[in-house]
Design brief:
By secondary structure, the protein is of the alpha/beta class. About 30% of the residues lie in helices and about 15% in strands. The chain is built from ten helices and eight strands. Strands 1-2-4-3-5-6-7-8 form an eight-stranded mixed beta sheet. The longest helix is centred in the middle third of the chain and has 16 residues.
Length: about 300
């Protein structure tokens, strides 16, 4: 099999973004907050959904959560072990193994475009610090211990047509992407190596990794107990292919890299199909919605409350 490495410039083309800088920075900008205020958008969360952190994104109380997270999580990336998985090509990955014993959950985190590469480092840095460290916070590991897998791809997660070197967005092809395929191979290997609770395997990601989250749940509908997607880019599957997986989806209404309409349309399709995904949309927030998503106080508890049926 012939594979092709993706450069950062190519990654921007794959996502079809309006601004390259928006994909790889996570600037702290103040915004007003609301949940999908327009009638034409996907409906707001209902009373059965987890409560959100109080305050607008620019309020001291809300911004304090983000700043506190940065301080509390500093250095947690050192707890990840560097590993590699050899298949038809080599995928670097990081693994966090908890101190607790017994069968424990596994969280799979899929990095955004800024983590592309083979250095086994970038998928833990930049904006990825939120989605990789939240599970490792001492309080979370004390109450909800888990394994965390952070694979790194230089191919993307979904399947792209890389034969056409144009300036426009790359064509997304049907079928399981190479990055997703090898990440799933790692999950299977870890299930054999460690005491992982097969009813509590979760997947989450942002931007390119958000599209990977939708992609994997579509292709492995019986594997994941829940999924969390942030500002997910496009995939080739219908949203309803993921309807069997409980989902919490986040998007910033002012995202200039990945249109919020992608999330709105996906959520609308799932709700029309009779499922109840959780959808949180922050008015005025841009592409770095993961800073708000992974600091929502109820997120980790909601994820681990989900269990796949027998």
């Amino acid at each position: 099999m012939t594979t092709q490495m993706i450069t950062r410039r190519e990654a921007v083309r794959l996502l079809g973004v309006a601004s390259a800088g928006a994909c790889f920075t996570a600037a702290q900008i103040g915004f007003n907050f609301s949940i999908v205020p327009k009638a034409s958008a996907a409906p707001a969360n209902d009373e059965s959904d987890p409560p959100l952190a109080p305050g607008a994104p620019t309020s001291p109380e809300r911004m304090a959560l983000i700043e506190a997270f940065k301080k509390q999580s500093e250095g947690l990336e050192k707890k990840y072990e560097a590993r590699t998985h050899k298949s038809d090509w080599v995928m670097p990955y990081r693994l966090f193994a908890p101190q607790a014993t017994g069968k424990l959950p596994l969280v799979v985190y899929l990095h955004g475009s800024g983590g592309l590469g083979v250095d086994n480092l970038k998928q833990l840095g930049l904006g990825n610090v939120f989605g990789t460290r939240v599970w490792l916070l001492p309080e979370n590991q004390k109450n909800l211990p888990c394994y965390v897998l952070v694979p790194q791809t230089d191919h993307g997660w979904v399947r792209y047509d890389l034969s056409q070197q144009t300036d426009g967005p790359a064509k997304i092809l049907p079928g399981l992407g190479d990055g997703a395929r090898l990440a799933l191979e790692i999950v299977e290997a870890l299930r054999r190596e460690f005491a992982i609770d097969e009813r509590r395997i979760y997947v989450t990601g942002q931007s390119m990794g958000g599209s990977g989250t939708w992609h994997m749940t579509a292709h492995r509908p019986k594997l994941f107990a829940a999924a969390v997607a942030c500002c997910a880019a496009d995939t080739n599957e219908e949203a309803t292919a993921s309807l069997r997986t409980p989902l919490w989806n986040f998007h910033g209404a002012s995202d200039e890299s990945v249109p919020v309409s992608l999330s709105r349309d996906r959520i609308a399709a799932l709700r029309k199909a009779g499922t109840h995904p959780i959808y949180t949309e922050y008015a005025g927030v841009g592409h770095n919605v993961w800073e708000w998503a992974y600091t929502e106080p109820e997120l980790v508890k909601w994820v681990f409350s989900q269990r796949r049926g027998c």
